[in-house]
User: Fold this.
Amino acid sequence: MAIAAALLLTGCGGGADSDSGKAVALTKEQVRQTLPDSGTMTGWNESARPTAVEMNQLYRSQGCPIKDHAGCETSRFYGASTFRREDSAATATFLIIAYESEQAARDAYNVLWNGYYGQRAGQQARTFNLGPIDEKRDARFGSAGFHDEPGTVTQTRVGTTLLWTMMDSTDKNKNAVNENSTRGLATLLAKRARQTQNGDAPSATL
Assistant:
């Protein structure tokens, strides 16, 4: 999780309500604003500030690390921010890939979930329900670390964007990472993405 955010830094700079209007392609600044920041995440410390970059070969290898960087063909921007819980060893990473159209994001969804992100929580991970978060969503809970530390990964599509939240822990404390906290983070990111898609400044907080 931290690798993508670190590369971004060296390279730069209820459920969510769906809208019946046509989704718009986001700008780089809109991607950055959509990502949660220190003012958004009560109880969390910012490890890497929200950053968005134009998608190029380097960031395709980070965002779509599968053969021929499938899933990134029509991507425009890539963004990330990371946090650590104040009261536990839990860490959280938010990722966004912004596409040129809603259809492009739709086409990339299964490619990236089945080809990479769905395995981020370990081979023995189980699925769990995120609830009614925007157009499409998936989530898995498992042991993502080398020593069976708990970890979760979610993927959501909101209009022209694909969104990910990844939680893990530096120890085996099962209370540090759980379905409810992961669901809250995924809902937060989806709400902020929907607000941006609707032309509003993202204001949802944790």
User: Anything to note?
Assistant: The two ends are 20 Å apart (CA to CA). The CA atoms of residues 47 and 83 lie 5 Å apart. The first helix runs from residue 2 to 11.
